[in-house]
Fold:
Amino acid sequence: MRSYQTNQIIEQLKFNNGLTWAYSILWLILSIELQPFSFSLPLLLIGAVNLGFSFIHQLLLYRVRQSAFRADRKTAVERSLAALMIFGIVTGNLFTFISGIMAFKKSLSTGLIYSIYMVLVDMMIIAVTSLNLFKPFVTNYYLVGLSVLIITLVYHSLILAFGQKIYSWNPGVQRIALGLLLLSGLTGNLLVFLVAASFYADNQPYSKGKRQTSIREKLTRNHAALLGLLFISFLLTLALTSTFTFSYSFAVQNDYANILQNPSIQYPFGTDNFGRDVFTRIVYGSQISLSVGVLATAIPLLIGGALGAISGFYGRQTDNIIMRLLDILYAIPGLLLAITIVAAFGASTTNLIIALSLGYIPSYARTMRANVLQVTNLEYIDAARALGQNNKQIILKHVIPNAMAPMIVRSTLTIGTAVIATSSLSYLGLGVEAHVPEWGNILRIGSQYLETYPYLAIYPGLAIILLVLSFNFLGDGIRDATDPRLN
Amino acid sequence: MKKEDINKPAAYRFLVSEAYKTASQERHVSWGLKLLSFPFQLLVLIRYLFNKHRDESKRLISIIEHQFEESGESAELKKELLRQEERKTAFLDQSVSRSDIEKNAEHYYQRARQREIKKRIDDQYRKSDIRPQDFLHETTSWLREPLGFLLSIILGFPMYLLLWVVSVPVIRYVANRLVAMLFVIVGVTVIVFTLLHLSPSDAALNILGEQATPQQVENFNQVHGLNDPYVVQLWRTVKGVFTFDLGISFEGNERVVATIMRRFPVTLQLAFFALMFSVTVALPSGIYAAVKANTTFDHLFMFIALIGISIPSFWQGLIFILTFSINLGWLPATYSASNLASLIMPAVVLGTALMASVARMTRSSTLEVINEDYILTARAKGLSSKRVILRHAVPNALIPVITIIGLQFSAMLGGAAVTEQVFNIRGLGSYIVNKQFVPDIPSVMGGVIYIAIALSIVNLIVDLIYSFLDPRIRSRIKNSQ
Structure:
């Protein structure tokens, strides 16, 4: 019988094994240069080193799967293999990094697992930000910003290394450590809050040996959802810090000396037909995509949720009127409704957000109504009424909190759809204003140079896919975590 | 034998009057019935007013009320309710004034009294032959007599159509859905028209340019009826949607509906191929993934499906063109009606999202069904694994999949706008997008409305298929009476 922790390590290694091999092979494929056929030496080298790490990973997986393996009594060989794998991060291989730390640590808590991803976000941000060093100039705040990021990374690494022993520290130090941790969350690193919440919960008396039932705890078993969360946090941090560390002029100012450059170290994704740096444009595009995605989800979540709750709780005529009116809205495909609104009021970011929100209201209302109908038939609502609570108190305190889980899942998935819809409309020329660096706008230019400069269309597309994929992974993960049948 | 023949019409009349009684229990149906047989109801009304003074029931009610007050039960009930109210306030620790408590108690008393009296009256009715002389009773008694029945057919025959629709559950369900669809179509028209009407830009100046003379502007507004008040324009549009006449477009002077009808088949053809492609790929692979749950194939396939949901269709289209048209040269990059091969890429691109969500849905619903007890029974009977899956699991698993297809079809017709732009297909979607740049209000409006109508019809069909496939819904419809 394997312990829970042993199983956790095996699952993680199994999940990462295929990914690290795929990652290594990706580098090898990228190193091939067609016309004339040759290999790019640096890329080939990275690929080879990664292959080495993948080999170690495979070896460790093999050892771990033996029945003799015990997570709490690892042999020296296993520990050194795990320690070696952590250095995979140098070649950008985050999968061996995750596996390495998981296999190296003596005991695994929820907080530790989130800390691994938290540190990864910091590393990725610093790596992306340092690419600016190859630019002709940087912003005034660049050095300050970069040092803040590095300090954050150091602090987070310390938390990763020692945070699990938080219960043995004295209360004052605990409070300061958690406070500093929360402060570092201002960079946009969402995982910081999960780490802080986990350590705080672990630190409570009687928390040892408790069954892990919260969404936060169950999510750690879903590796794909964690990778999604990693990328979302990365992009959010990038969106927030880019204002200080990336020069906006590269994204919007025309530079006719450098038109349609191929990708190089100075312009990692090349330049477009006005000589603007596509890399910086994509980084700034994340601000628009994330804010439109989040707003176009939050507004219908509130309005649709409220309408659905009222409609489900009061039933009868109220329900009939609200749902029939929303049926009308539901009959118009979201994209066409957006086109109609843009045709009437012109293309702008505000109109885009309103248009997308309007289209999502009916589906939120339907979900909320179904949940509320289910909840209102339960005994505790009758109990609340018997205790003399009025409708408003019952709705706010008992109905809505218990009907929220499917809404959270739906909103996570909708952010992805909203990101796609935003870029689709911008691609058609109906979304964000054409001069704003937005992923759809970048792609629109890219589509004109598809034959000659395909990278202009490929990179922004990859950014969209990765972001949407991450939200879908996370949404699926939350759905599994909240599904009572899977417990 | 002969006796039965005589009784047959009587039995039939009785059936009709019973159906009328049941149907009248719903208020809106009852009003509909009265409206449709107005001349007949008028006759009934005259007789009813004439007979009213002979009503026995009024007297009965007053006797019972009197009894209730006299016997002291009334005062007892009042006291009991007041006591309950006091105990409640004491228990909940509320500070309520004495007069409020009494007011509440009085309120509850009035309700309880009405309930009690109604109960006693109903008891009396059941014991004696006296019936309340209301209008409904009068009507049904007319329907039971041969002469009255004949009169009702002659004077109020449209009523029988409604009665038939209301009394047969399946037809009633279909009729309800049709009415709901009509409501949605009118609603969509109102919303789209209002949104476009609220536009702050001046259509005439947009089309004619800044240099247009006042005369030209006036003429333009006259031709397109833009000077009329909102309600008049709205009415004209609603009427136009049903009579297929939405006037002429702002630009190019063409009939809007004629252009839409010319372009619609292209979009429908594209959507149809996309649907075919996605369903033929998604169903077998979704079922296979469910049967082989948690294997490498399952994980890989579900990952691909998730990518299918996450990929923006215009980017997928661009990458397809880059790979299959520019680099490999296998397929044409743009659509032409004569070449069916040029439809492959657009159909695949448009169908990807649908394929992915159908595959995911098929997998999860098949997985759910496979764990049911009756599948275990089927296996225990010794059926082959193939037969268990294909005969017992799949048909039940397909029910939610049909809903998903119906819902996703809406996203697909909307998404057609993007796909058509990428592959340069002259369908309805790209028509709306191109006209929106002008902005040519009647064309955009017509396109959006007719797509919404097409979707409503598709959803109606899906709903009907769904309800006839699913025995649970079928029985719910039958029992709804």
Notes: The two ends of chain B are 34 Å apart (CA to CA).
